[in-house]
Specification:
This protein is mainly alpha-helical. The chain is about 75% helix and about 0% strand. The protein contains 19 helices and no strands. Helix 3 packs across helix 10 and helix 5 runs antiparallel to helix 14. It is globular. The N and C termini lie far apart (about 45 Å). The chain binds phenylalanine (PHE). The site of phenylalanine has 15 residues, from helix 1, helix 2, helix 10 and helix 14.
Length: about 450
């Protein structure tokens, strides 16, 4: 039903912060961020990323949560109900549904790799010198049957969690997961910083090559990565906000989520680059999606008991990935339940089935099937294509439309009433209004237009 009266709410603000942080922290931070830094030229990318997070993504997160809490609906319903009658704003919600399914289709492949690496590191199957570790990764990702099985495992686990009501357990687990992940990352960062050659990596990561700031593709990739990492631009935060109680301060919650998510991404970089550059012949640009799977096992092999340490790390990363996949699946599922009146069960089964079909080419595109591994005309593999379409274009476009909607259609003053409901404080109101009404649409719009002009 579209009324949303029967919606449950989070037990407390910390329940919401945990679930939202669980959605935000995942492969985007530990796999995506270092990979993008490597491809985007190091510290210049980091700089642009941080600016995007502060000036564009944080205000949009506030807007999404307010939209969700005010409407108490899934994204398409929220846009439809708050827009003037007969307008087409529901399309933004629908775009989010497609984007959730699209991202999940490649995300589940990478999440499958992290699960496999729990076993590979625990049993020391992946070890030896850099060359044999690279070779191991290539042989593993080009095994079609194993990859399909792992992808279905991830999708099956996600669907079971959404259906089985063990979500509360998962959210409670997030409470332990985040501190454990941060501690493990800190230990690894200290180890990586003490490896021979680490200074080169730190330099690469922290000293921006200003010439890269003239490259519009760096802006596009950083913007897309910021949206992806913070779970914005597709309605995940609208959906989670729709379960948030009115007494909770949205501004303060956003600050927490953004700080935790950014901290974890930055930490991952402090591990990968010093460790990577300590390996001779390391080239961050050409490593692609295999970057963490080839650099980390090498790092673990320099630590006493490294295989157990590595297994614990990939276990935590798999759990962090699962708290993100449930939010990715939740958006299309709650859409079908709210707008089509399907039962939750039917929605989960049908949506998961469709996502699996779309995941097949990503799963088989890393060497198993030539057509998907080296796409005709455009080149590159299917997984990279998916990541580019959904992360670099779909999410920022969703964010652009959300900022226009909240700033000008629903209107900032109504959003502000929601942000200050029940006496909650929102001290940066005028800054937020300026960012949502002007900075977000102008900056995102210019980056997308410039990228399109350069690409086509
Ligand atoms: N933010 C998640 C991550 O960093 C991925 C995600 C994107 C989840 C969009 C939900 C929505 O892994």
């Amino acid at each position: 039903m579209d009324t949303g009266h029967s919606r449950g709410t989070w037990g407390s603000r910390s329940g919401f912060i945990l679930a939202a942080t669980g959605s935000a922290v995942g492969l985007g931070n530990i796999w995506g961020f270092p990979t993008q830094v490597g491809q985007g030229g190091g510290a210049a990318f980091v700089l642009v990323y941080l600016i995007c997070v502060l000036l564009i993504c944080a205000p949009i997160m506030v807007a999404e949560i307010a939209l969700g809490r005010h409407s108490r609906l899934s994204p398409a319903g929220a846009f439809r109900n708050l827009a003037p009658a007969d307008s087409s704003w529901w399309i933004v919600g629908a775009l989010g549904v497609a984007t959730g399914a699209g991202i999940l289709s490649f995300y589940s492949v990478i999440a499958g790799w992290t699960i496999a690496y729990i076993w590979f590191t625990a049993t020391s199957a992946v070890s030896g010198n850099a060359e044999s570790i690279n070779h191991f990764f290539e042989a593993f990702t080009s095994n079609g049957v194993v990859n399909l099985a792992l992808t279905s495992l991830v999708l099956g686990a996600t669907a079971t969690i959404l259906l089985g009501g063990v979500r509360a357990g998962i959210e409670r687990a997030t409470k332990m997961l985040m501190p454990a992940l941060i501690v493990l990352l800190l230990i690894l960062a200290v180890r990586a910083a003490t490896l021979p050659g680490a200074e080169v990596g730190l330099d690469y990561y922290m000293r921006p090559d200003l010439a890269r700031l003239l490259d519009v593709s760096v802006f596009n990739a950083a913007l897309g990565q910021a949206f992806f990492s913070l779970s914005l631009g597709m309605g995940a935060m609208i959906t989670y906000g729709s379960y948030l109680g009115r007494r909770e301060a949205i501004g303060a919650s956003t600050v927490w989520i953004v700080i935790l998510d950014t901290l974890i991404a930055l930490l991952a970089g402090f591990i990968i680059f010093p460790a990577g550059f300590s390996i001779s012949g390391f080239d961050p640009t050409s490593s692609g999606p295999g970057l963490i799977f080839t650099v980390l096992p090498r790092l673990f092999s320099t630590i006493p008991g490294g295989n157990l340490f590595g297994a614990a790390f990939f276990l935590l990363l798999s759990m962090a990935a699962l708290t993100s996949t449930i939010s990715l699946l939740e958006v299309p599922v709650s859409h079908c339940v709210d707008t089509r009146g399907w039962s939750r069960w039917k929605a989960v089964v049908i949506v998961t089935g469709c996502v699996f079909l779309l995941a097949i080419p990503s799963s088989l595109g890393n060497g198993a099937v030539g057509l998907f591994s080296d796409l005709p005309i455009i080149g590159g593999n299917f997984l990279d294509l998916m990541a580019t379409i959904w992360n670099n274009f779909s999410l920022p476009i969703g964010g652009l439309l959300t900022s226009i909607f909240v700033g000008r259609v629903w209107h900032v003053n109504r959003a502000l009433d929601e942000l200050c409901a029940e006496g909650a404080s929102f001290p940066v109101a005028s800054l937020w209004i300026f960012l949502v009404k002007w900075v977000c649409p102008v900056a995102i719009g210019s980056i997308i237009i410039a990228t399109a002009l350069v690409t086509f």
